[in-house]
Amino acid sequence: MGHIGTIIEKYRQALNMSRKELSENICSEKHIYLIEKGERSPSVNMLKLLGDRVGVDLLKFYPYLNCENPMEVFKKIQEFNMYRINIEFELLNKVTDEAEEMPDFNKSPWNLEIMLNRLYYSFYIKKQYEETSAQLRNLLKEAEPVYSDDMFTASAYMLIGSCCFIMGDNDNAKKASESAYNIYLKKQEIVMDEKLITTIIINVLGLYYVNCEFDNVISKGNEFLQTKQQINSFDRLHYVYFLVSCSYYAKNQRKEAMEVLKKAVYFLMLDYRPTDVGYIALDPRFIDMLDDLGKESEIIQEFREKYQI
Questions:
Q1: Quick one: which of 3, 11, 196, 226 is 20 to 30 A from 162 by CA?
Q2: How far is the C-alpha of 293 from the C-alpha of 296, rounded, in Å?
Q3: In angstroms, rounded to a whole number, what is the distance separating the alpha carbons of residues 262 and 90?
Q4: Segment holding 209, helix H or strand E
Q5: pLDDT of residue 287
Q6: pLDDT (tens digit, 9 = 90+) per residue, 106-145?
Q7: Distances from the Cα of 140 to the Cαs of 70, 103, 113, 115, 222, in angstroms?
Q8: pLDDT digit string (tens) for 240-297?
Q9: How many CA atoms lie within 13 A of 279 on its CB side?
Q10: What residues have CB less than 8 Å from 302, skipping those under 6 apart?
C-alpha cells in the first residue's frame, strides 16, 4: 500500500523545492523527510498547509493510496470524467485502452471505472440501449459494497436515465436522473465536477419538463440558477433558462417567461451556440413562445435572425 508521503515528495520535486522550503513555518525539515519515507502520517491540518505550499489538494489522493501508482490512477479517472461529460467517446475509449494496460485498473475497485467507460461507448457509439441499461444496473449493484465514488455513481445513473428515455420509459428515466440529482444535493459534503453537476441538473429538469412537471422545473431550475450566479459560474446555463422560461410559458405566466427567456438570449447573443439552439428549437412550445413574446422584444427578434429560427 502506498502512502501520502510519496505524493508530497513528487510534487515537491516537480517544483524544485527543498524539504527545508516545504517545511518552513509548518514543521521541521526532518518531519518532512519522515513523512516522505512513510514513517510519519501528517495531520489533516498539516496536510492542508503542505498542499497549499505545493499548490495541490493532497486530501484528494487518499482514496488512491492502495494503488501501485496512485497519481496515475487519479489522473486517468480525471480524464475519464472529462471525456464522459464532454461526450468525447472516441477519446474515452482510447484512454480506457491505455488504462487497461495498468495493473491498478485490472483489479477492484478501479476496474469498475473501465466497465462504466465501455458502457458509455456501447450507448453512444453502438446504440445498444436496452443491453446497456441492464448492465449499468448490475454494475451499480456490484459497485455498491466496494466503491463509493460519487462521480462514478452519478455518471452511471445519468446514463441509465438516457437509456430509459430513448426507450420511451420516462418513469424510470426520471427515477435514474433523480438519483443522480440526489447525489448533487450532497454537494456541501462531496467534491464533484462542476460540468457534471450542470449536466445532472439539465437532465433532471428536461425529464420534469417532458413529463409536464412545470412547477418542479421552475423551482429546481431557479434554485440552481441562483446557486450558479452566487459562484459566478455560467456553464450551459442557457439550457436551464430555456427550460424554466418554457415552463413559465406553459403555465401562462408570460411576464416571468419573458424575463427568463431574455437572460438565455443575452447569453447566446454573446456566445454563439447553433447546435444547442437547434436542439432546443425542436420543442414546439419554444417556437410558440418566441412567436408570442418576440413581438415585444427587439433582442428576441435579433436572436431569431442570428440563429435563423
A1: 226
A2: 6
A3: 36
A4: helix 194-210
A5: 95
A6: 999 999 999 999 999 999 999 999 999 999 999 999 999 9
A7: 23, 22, 11, 11, 31
A8: 999 999 999 999 999 999 999 999 999 899 989 998 899 899 999 999 999 999 988 9
A9: 8
A10: 269
Round to whole Å and give the CA distance between 78 and 119: 18
| Beta carbons within 8 Å of 226's beta carbon, 6+ residues apart | none
Alpha helices in 86-149 (DSSP H): 89-100, 111-124, 129-143
- What confidence score (pLDDT) does residue 189 get? 45
Q: Which three cell numbers stand for residue 298?
A: 427587439
Q: Are 293 and 300 in contact (CB under 8 A)?
A: yes
Percent helix, strand and coil across the chain, each to the nearest 5: 75, 0, 25
Residue 41: what residue type? S
* Crossing angle between the packed helical segments 237-250 and 194-210, to the nearest 10 degrees: 20
Type of residue numbered 60: K
- Length of the chain counted residue by residue: 309
CA 67 – CA 70 distance, rounded (Å):
5
Q: Which pTM was predicted?
A: 0.80
Cell of 74: 487519479
In angstroms, rounded to a whole number, what is the distance separating the alpha carbons of residues 103 and 67?
Answer: 9
pLDDT tens digit string along 53-88? 999 999 889 889 889 889 999 999 999 988 998 888
What pLDDT, in 10s, does the model give residues 213-236?
999 999 999 999 988 877 667 778
- Residue 248 CA to its chain's centroid (Å): 27
What is the per-residue pLDDT across 8-55, written as a single tens digit (0 to 9) for each? 999 999 999 999 999 999 999 999 999 999 899 899 899 999 999 999
